[in-house]
Write a structure and sequence with these properties.
The complex is a heterotrimer of chains A (about 220), B (about 240) and C (about 375).
Chain A lengths: L1 H8 L1 H32 L4 H16 L2 H12 L8 H25 L3 H9 L4 H34 L9 H9 L3 H29 L12
Helix pairs in contact in A: 1-9, 2-5, 2-7, 3-5, 4-5, 5-7, 6-7, 7-9, 8-9
Chain B lengths: L1 H27 L1 H42 L4 H16 L2 H12 L3 H25 L3 H9 L4 H35 L8 H10 L2 H29 L10
Chain C lengths: L1 E12 L2 E13 L4 E5 L6 H8 L7 E6 L2 E2 L5 H6 L1 E5 L10 H11 L4 H14 L4 H4 L9 H13 L5 E5 L7 H18 L2 E6 L2 H7 L2 E6 L2 E6 L1 H6 L4 H7 L3 H5 L5 H4 L6 E2 L5 H11 L4 E5 L5 E6 H6 L4 H4 L7 E2 L4 H11 L3 E5 L5 E6 H13 L9 H5 L1
Parallel strand pairs in C: 3-8, 3-9, 6-7, 7-8, 11-12, 14-15
Antiparallel strand pairs in C: 1-2, 1-4, 4-5, 9-10, 12-13, 15-16
Helix pairs in contact in C: 3-4, 3-6, 4-6
The chains are: A mainly alpha (about 220), B mainly alpha (about 240), C alpha/beta (about 375).
Keywords (chain A): Membrane, Transmembrane, Transmembrane helix, Transport
InterPro entries (chain A): ABC_transp_perm/SBD, MetI-like, MetI-like_sf
Pfam families (chain A): BPD_transp_1
C-alpha cells in the first residue's frame, strides 16, 4: 500500500524515467539493428570472417556491463563524455551486436538450400533473392535477435543509472544510497515490468512480421 | 592470400600499439598507480570468486534436478506453465533481482548470494528442461523398447544427449553471474564492484580500470573454462564443437 | 531443342580434381522428354544443372533451340528455362499465386496478364484457382505443392524445362497420378524436357529418350525400348535389372501383337461344331463364344465339348478376362497369369472382339528384339507411346 502510494505520488517522474529508459534503449538498439543486420548479411559470404566476427561479438557480450562502463569512462572522458548517456548508449550498441548479427547470419544461412536453388533456377538476381526470399524468411529470426537485445539492454540501462545515464535505474540507485526501500522496490518492479512488457510486445510484433505462410511452421528457418 | 597479409599487418599494428602503450604507461607512472591497487584487487577478486562459487554451485545443484523433475512426463501439466514463469523471470534485469533481494533480506552477503542464485538458477533450469525435452523421441522409444528402466533411460540416454544444451545454459548463467557480482557491492557484499563503483564516484580512472579489467577477464575466463569443460565432458558423438 | 556439346564439369575437391561430367554430347529434339538416368554420383544432376548454370560448366557449350547460350546473361537464361526440383522449393512467404507469377513478374509482364496466367496454370494442373491461389504452400499436400512447382516452372511458357527428380519425394500412388497428369499436359505443351531420375520404371514411363550415365560419362542414349532390348554393356544391363524384359512389357501395346484371326462360336452353334472349330484352329483348351453384337459372351471348353451334346448357349463358362487394344502387354501378361490362360480375347473401344493375344506372340515379340540385337533402326518409342 505504501509502495503504491509512493508510486502514485511520483507517477509523473516514474513516467518520464520510463520514457527516458525506453528512448535510450530504443535509439541504441535501433542503431544497432541498422549496423547489425547488414553485417549479419555480409558475413554470410565468408565463413571464416563470419566465425571471427561472431567470436568478437560474443567476447564483447561476455564483458560485464559495469566493467565495460569502467573501461569506457576513462576513454570517453578524453572527448568529454566520460559519464552520462553516451557510454550507456555505446554499451547498448555493442551488446546488441551479438544477438542481431548472430540471428541475421543464422537466419540467412539457414534458408532452405532448396529455396535458394529454386530462386536461382528461376532466374532471380542475388539482390532479388535477398529481397524477395531470404530477408522475408529471416525477418522473424532477426526480430527475435532484436528482442533479445532490447530485453538484455533494459537491464544494462538500469545499471547505467550509476554512470549518470538516467532511466529507471535511478530509482534503484537512489533507493540504495538513501536506504529508501520504497524507491528501491518501485524502481526494481518498474524496470522488471518494463522488461517483461517490452518482451511480450516485441514477441507480438515478431509474430506480426512473420510472413503469413510461415506462421504455421515454428518461426525457425 | 590477401586476408593473411591483412591479418599479419593487423597483428603487427596491435603489437606496436601494446608496446607504445607500455612505454607511455611506464613513463607516466600509471603502472605504479595500478600496482598500488594490486593488494585490493587480489583481496576483492577472492571475494568476487567466492560469491560466484557459492551462488553458482547452489544454483547448479538446484537447477539441474529441478529441470530433470520438470521434464518428467508426469510433470507435463505443471512444467509448461512453470517454464513460462521462468521465461518471464529471465527477462527481469539482474540489478532489479538484487535490489528486490536486498529489500527483503537486507544488506550483506546473504541477500547478494540469494540474488545471484536466483539470477543463475533460471537459465540453467530452462536449458536443462529444454535439453531433456529436446532429446529425439525415437531415441527414447528405442531405449524403452530395449527394456531400459526410466532411471536407466535418464542416465544413459537423456542426460548424455542433453548435456551439451545443459552446459550451454551453465555457461550463459555463470557468465551472467560473474558479471552481476560487481553489483553485489551495492548491497554490501564486496567484490570487484567496490573498485569500479568507488572509482566512478571518485572519478578515478585507474581505480575504475583496476576493477573493470579483472572483472572483464574473469567473465571471459569463466566463459572459456565452461566451454572447455563442455568440450571435454560431453560425449563426442553428441558434441557439436567436436564434430 | 537442347543440344549439349562436349559439356564438362571438373570439381576441385581437397582430394583432387573430380570429373563429374566428362565431355557430354547429346541432343534432345523439340517436344521430347529426355530422362537422365543413373546411380547417385553418376553426373546426371550435374549435367542437368549445367544447362541453367546452377552448376557452372568447366567447358563445353549448351544450345537451346539452336542458339548458343554461352553468351547469354545467366538470369535471362534461367528465366527462359522452366526449373523443377525434388524439394519443390516453393517460397513459403509467398502465396500460391505469388509463387506461380514470380517469373512473369521478373520478366516484367503486366499485372492483368500474369494474374490471368496464374488462373490458366491452375486450370492446367487441375487445381481450383479460387480455392488455392490465395493460400500458402504450407497449407497444401506434397503432391499439390509439386503441381504448383510445375506450374511455376511453366508460368512464363519457357520452351525448355529442366526437372531434377521432380516426383521423387511424392508417395508412390500420388506419383503415378502426377506422372500421368504431366504426360497429358506435355502432349499439349510440347516442351523440350530434361528430366533426372534414378528410377528405371519412371524413366521408361516418362521418357521419349533415356540417357544412362556412369561416373561422369554418358554410357547409352536411346529410346526406352532400345535401352531395354539392347543394353550397350554390362553396367547398363545390371542397372536395368534382371527383369528388364518384363519392363519392356510396359512399352508395348496389345494392338501391336494382336492376331486378327480368332475362331469363335455363337450361342446357337452345337458343341459338336465347337469341338470341330477348336480342332481346326488348333486350340488346346477352349474357344470363345460371342453374342450377336460380337462381344465376348463365354467360353466353351474342349473337354466339355468332347463329352457332352447340346448347344453352346447351355454349356458355356464365364470369360476369364479380356484385354483392350490399348492396354499394354504388362496388363495382358498379368491377366494371363492370374487366370491361368495362354491366350486372351482382345476387344476394341466398343467392346467387340477383334482378335486374340497369345503368350507365344508376346514372347516372340520380345525375343525378336534380343535376337536382332545388333542395330537395326527401330521405330522410335514416341510412336509406340502415341
Amino acid at each position: 500500500m505504501e509502495l503504491l502510494q509512493y508510486a502514485l505520488d511520483n507517477a509523473s517522474l516514474l513516467l518520464s524515467r520510463t520514457i527516458e529508459h525506453i528512448a535510450l534503449v530504443g535509439v541504441a538498439v535501433g542503431i544497432a539493428t541498422l549496423t547489425g543486420v547488414p553485417i549479419g548479411i555480409a558475413i554470410t559470404k565468408n565463413e571464416r570472417v563470419a566465425q571471427n566476427v561472431l567470436y568478437l561479438a560474443s567476447i564483447i557480450v561476455t564483458i560485464p556491463s559495469i566493467a565495460l562502463f569502467g573501461i569506457m569512462i576513462p576513454v570517453l572522458s578524453l572527448i568529454g563524455h566520460g559519464i552520462g548517456y553516451v557510454p550507456a548508449v555505446i554499451a547498448v550498441l555493442l551488446y546488441s551486436q551479438l544477438p542481431i548479427i548472430r540471428n541475421t547470419y543464422t537466419a540467412i544461412n539457414n534458408v532452405n538450400p532448396a529455396l535458394r536453388e529454386a530462386a536461382r533456377g528461376i532466374g532471380m538476381s542475388p539482390n532479388q533473392r535477398l529481397r524477395l526470399v531470404e530477408i522475408p524468411l529471416a525477418v522473424p529470426i532477426i526480430m527475435a535477435g532484436v528482442r533479445t537485445a532490447v530485453v538484455l539492454n533494459i537491464g544494462v540501462m538500469a545499471i547505467a543509472a550509476y554512470i549518470g545515464a538516467g532511466g529507471l535505474g535511478t530509482f534503484i540507485s537512489r533507493g540504495i544510497s538513501q536506504s529508501d526501500s520504497r524507491q528501491l522496490i518501485v524502481g526494481a518492479i518498474a524496470v522488471s515490468l518494463l522488461a517483461i512488457i517490452v518482451d511480450y510486445a516485441l514477441l507480438y510484433l515478431q509474430k506480426r512480421l512473420t510472413p503469413k505462410g510461415m506462421s504455421r511452421q515454428a518461426a525457425t528457418p | 592470400m590477401p586476408i593473411r597479409s591483412i591479418k599479419g599487418a593487423l597483428k603487427a599494428l596491435v603489437l606496436f600499439a601494446i608496446f607504445f602503450a607500455g612505454v607511455w604507461s611506464q613513463s607516466s607512472g600509471v603502472i605504479d598507480e595500478f600496482l598500488w591497487y594490486l593488494p585490493d584487487v587480489q583481496y576483492l577478486m577472492v571475494q568476487h570468486i567466492w560469491l560466484t562459487v557459492m551462488s553458482g554451485s547452489l544454483a547448479i545443484l538446484v537447477a539441474i534436478p529441478l529441470g530433470i523433475v520438470l521434464s518428467r512426463p508426469k510433470m507435463a501439466n505443471v512444467a509448461e506453465s512453470l517454464m513460462q514463469v521462468l521465461n518471464v523471470g529471465t527477462t527481469i534485469p539482474t540489478l532489479a533481482v538484487l535490489a528486490l533481494s536486498m529489500s527483503f533480506l537486507g544488506i550483506g552477503t546473504v541477500p547478494a548470494v540469494f540474488g545471484l542464485f536466483v539470477a543463475t538458477l533460471l537459465p540453467i533450469t530452462r536449458n536443462t528442461y529444454a535439453g531433456l525435452k529436446g532429446v529425439n523421441p525415437a531415441l527414447m522409444e528405442a531405449a524403452a523398447g530395449i527394456g531400459m528402466s526410466p532411471m536407466q533411460r535418464l542416465l544413459k540416454v537423456e542426460l548424455p544427449n542433453a548435456l551439451y544444451v545443459i552446459f550451454a545454459g551453465m555457461r550463459t548463467a555463470l557468465t551472467i553471474n560473474v558479471g552481476t557480482v560487481p553489483l553485489a557491492f551495492l548491497i554490501g557484499a564486496g567484490g570487484l564492484g567496490e573498485l569500479i563503483f568507488t572509482g566512478i564516484d571518485l572519478y578515478d580512472p585507474v581505480m575504475m580500470l583496476s576493477g573493470a579489467i579483472p572483472t572483464a577477464l574473469l567473465a571471459i575466463t569463466i566463459d572459456a573454462l565452461i566451454a572447455i569443460i563442455a568440450f571435454l565432458v560431453v560425449p563426442r558423438g553428441v558434441n557439436p564443437s567436436r564434430a | 531443342m537442347i543440344r549439349l556439346e562436349s559439356l564438362t564439369k571438373v570439381f576441385d575437391t581437397p582430394k583432387g580434381a573430380v570429373v563429374a561430367a566428362d565431355h557430354i554430347d547429346m541432343e534432345v529434339p523439340e517436344g521430347e522428354i529426355c530422362i537422365l538416368l543413373g546411380p547417385s554420383g553418376c553426373g546426371k544432376t550435374t549435367t542437368l544443372k549445367m544447362i541453367n548454370r546452377i552448376v557452372k560448366p568447366t567447358s563445353g557449350k549448351v544450345f537451346i533451340n539452336g542458339e548458343d547460350t554461352t553468351g547469354l546473361d545467366t538470369q535471362t537464361l534461367r528465366r527462359n528455362i522452366g526449373y523443377v526440383i525434388q524439394q519443390i522449393g516453393l517460397f513459403p512467404n509467398m502465396t500460391i499465386e505469388e509463387n506461380i507469377t514470380i517469373v512473369p513478374k521478373l520478366l516484367g509482364w503486366d499485372k492483368a496478364k500474369y494474374k490471368a496466367r496464374a488462373r490458366e496454370m491452375m486450370a492446367m494442373i487441375a487445381l481450383e484457382p479460387d480455392a488455392f491461389l490465395k493460400r500458402f504452400p504450407s497449407e497444401l499436400s506434397g503432391g499439390q505443392q509439386q503441381r504448383i512447382g510445375v506450374a511455376r516452372a511453366l508460368a512464363a511458357d519457357p520452351p525448355v524445362m529442366l526437372m531434377d527428380e521432380p516426383f521423387g519425394a511424392i508417395d508412390p500412388i500420388n506419383r503415378a497420378v502426377i506422372q500421368d497428369e504431366f504426360l497429358k499436359m506435355q502432349q499439349e505443351l510440347n516442351k523440350t524436357i530434361m528430366f533426372v531420375s534414378h528410377d528405371i520404371d519412371e524413366a521408361i514411363k516418362m521418357g521419349d529418350r533415356v540417357a544412362v550415365f556412369r561416373e561422369g560419362k554418358l554410357v547409352q542414349y536411346s529410346t526406352p525400348d532400345d535401352l531395354l532390348a539392347a543394353p550397350k554393356n554390362a553396367f547398363v544391363e545390371s542397372f536395368l535389372g534382371e527383369d528388364r524384359a518384363l519392363k519392356r512389357l510396359n512399352l508395348v501395346k496389345v494392338r501391336e501383337i494382336v492376331t486378327d484371326e480368332i475362331g469363335t462360336v455363337t450361342p446357337s452353334d452345337t458343341l459338336e461344331t465347337a469341338l470341330a472349330k477348336i480342332d481346326d484352329y488348333g486350340y488346346q483348351n477352349a474357344i470363345l463364344m460371342i453374342n450377336e453384337r460380337k462381344q465376348p459372351a463365354g467360353i466353351i471348353s474342349r473337354s466339355l465339348a468332347r463329352t457332352t451334346k447340346g448347344y453352346c448357349r447351355d454349356h458355356f463358362q464365364a470369360v476369364p478376362a479380356v484385354v483392350d487394344l490399348d492396354d499394354d502387354l504388362r496388363k495382358a501378361a498379368s491377366l494371363m497369369f492370374a487366370h491361368d490362360q495362354t491366350w486372351l480375347p482382345c476387344v476394341d473401344k466398343a467392346g467387340t472382339v477383334c482378335g486374340q493375344i497369345t503368350q507365344r506372340a508376346m514372347t516372340s515379340h520380345l525375343g525378336a528384339r534380343y535376337r536382332a540385337r545388333q542395330g537395326d533402326d527401330r521405330k522410335p518409342s514416341a510412336a509406340i507411346k502415341e
